[in-house]
Amino acid sequence: MAPPCPNLEGAPMRNNQPITDQEHHLDPKCPLVSLTDLKGVILHANQSFVEISGYRQDELLGQPHNLIRHPDMPAEAFEDMWRTLKADLPWRGIVKNRCKNGDFYWVEAYVTPLIEDGRKVGYMSVRTRPTPRQITEANALYQAVNHRSIRFPATRYRRDTSVTARLALMALLPALCFGAALCLGDHGRWLAAGAGVLAAPALGLWTWLGIVPPMKRSGEALLKIASGDLRFELDTRASSEFFRLLIGIQSMKVGLRAVFADILSIAGHVESQSHALNDQVDMANQRIHLGADSVRTMAAAIEQLTESVSEISLATQSSAGQATLTAEKVSQGLGQIVDTQTASLGVVSRMDSAQQLITELKSEVASIQNLAEIIKEIADQTNLLALNAAIEAARAGETGRGFAVVADEVRKLAERTSSSTVEITATVERIGTCTANTLSAMAMAAGEVQISHSLMNESRETYDAIQRSADGIQSSSRNIAAMLQQQEHSSSEVAGKIEEISQLVEQNSSSVESIHKAARQLGHTAQQLHAMTSRFEHSL
């Protein structure tokens, strides 16, 4: 069981709840070990204690040992333990402890004081697995004590008469016999001498029994411990001089059992961990080799990327130059379109002026046609007057012959005038038709010029868009070229970093190999440690 707790000095016993009927069993080869200070505060708990208690290491350290007390344990058991430990003697008993979740487990506890520089500094508790019979007897005892049916049996160490007292009696025997002989008469002297002769061997045998058997038991115990037997029972009954020796050997045996159990457990744990570490190192080594291959592949890819970026950068710079030339050509074409638009606007203006002149000409032709009509009418009237004059001249006879000749000339002139008027009218009509056709053609031409102007406006807008796009392409190409140059620089830096990573991977591979060797050496050391302590394994 555990070392004494603060409540052993009069404080109320701790009642840990809840509890269950679920029992746990100790591993016979894994004793529970704990160290406490003089107040019972836990300073150390081995892994076996941590595992079966259900508490974490940090939950146990710094806590009173009655943290694991089971309510079925009578307070008298702890009082007996405390009295025994107060006397600087070890205590041994069967104890029922509580797990964190309320389950329980039985232990055979051996609690002994810890002495440093002749001063008691704390207590060590070593708990092992009890036999079923011990558990049954202890359970019945504790139930009876809790029901006040019986008293808890106190721990008592039997001691024989000290060797010092025996030697003192042997030293006093001759003096006693001599004094008795002096005090008695002749007959009494012989009686005193006979009593001395008989008492001397008996006293010598008694003294021998007080020295030799305890020494023999001590020697046998030490030989058993040296041979690896730590489970033997040691009879500690002896004279006071040898009692402390036997108690010390008993405590040493229990402590060594706990130490070797922890060493074996730790050695096995180290061995298994070294194997696991070897496996992990092997996996890490494989990953490092895979990583090295990946780094080399990445380096090659980065190198190809750098070359591609360089080629793209050159192509982009060339595209930027072509975009600049395109922008210049577009600018020239745009200027030519503007000039053409200006010229077409001049043509439209001149055609408008020509249309106005032709319209005026058409008006003048119409006026001429009107005049020709008037002339025709005058010619017709003149011709009619000439006919009338000829008729009158014929009536006049010879007198009017001269007048008739004049009238005939006038008639002829009127006919020629009428004929000329018809020709003028036809000519004027042809001029009008030509003028109308010219106006129509000029109107159509003006419309075509307007359409051409509109198309040139659209072309100008298109050229403007092309120029903006060309400018954008030029700017984007420059930006892309700059970014590609930066990318090329970054790729070069990345390639350098990857080279550094590759070197680090190689260094890590070397370090992992060193760790692998160290892990193998650790496993070998653990195996050697296990082999050195394995002869104690059967006695745990």
Describe this structure in words.
Residues 1-25 are annotated as: Disordered. InterPro entries: MCPsignal_dom, PAC, PAS, PAS-like_dom_sf, PAS_fold_3. By secondary structure, this protein is an alpha/beta fold. It has helices at 47-53, 57-60, 75-86, 132-146, 163-183, 186-227, 240-396, 401-533, and strands at 23-24, 32-36, 42-45, 91-98, 104-116, 119-128, 159-160, 238-239. α5 (163-183) runs antiparallel to α6, α6 packs parallel to α7 (240-396) and α7 (240-396) packs antiparallel against α8 (401-533). It is rod-shaped, with a radius of gyration of 69 Å.
The CATH class assignment of the largest domain is Mainly Alpha
Give the count of helical stretches.
8
What order do the SSEs take from the amino end to the carboxyl end, as H and E? Answer: EEEHHHEEEHEHHEHH
Number of strands: 8
User: Helix coverage percent of residues?
Assistant: over 70%
Q: Radius of gyration, Cα only, in angstroms?
A: 69 Å
What's the structural domain tally?
A: 3
Give the CATH topology of the largest domain. Helix Hairpins
* Poorly predicted ranges: 1-12
Structural class: alpha/beta
CATH superfamily of the largest domain: Methyl-accepting chemotaxis protein
> Whole-number average pLDDT?
75
Largest sheet: 6 strands, mixed
How much β-strand is present in the residues?
Answer: 5-15%
Termini Cα gap: 18 Å
* CATH architecture title of the largest domain: Orthogonal Bundle
Basic shape? rod-shaped
List the helices and strands and how they pair.
Layout: E1 23-24, E2 32-36, E3 42-45, H1 47-53, H2 57-60, H3 75-86, E4 91-98, E5 104-116, E6 119-128, H4 132-146, E7 159-160, H5 163-183, H6 186-227, E8 238-239, H7 240-396, H8 401-533
Parallel strand pairs: 1-5, 7-8
Antiparallel strand pairs: 2-3, 2-6, 4-5, 5-6
Helix pairs in contact: 5-6, 6-7, 7-8
Subcellular location: Cell inner membrane
InterPro entries: MCPsignal_dom, PAC, PAS, PAS-like_dom_sf, PAS_fold_3
Region (Disordered): 1-25
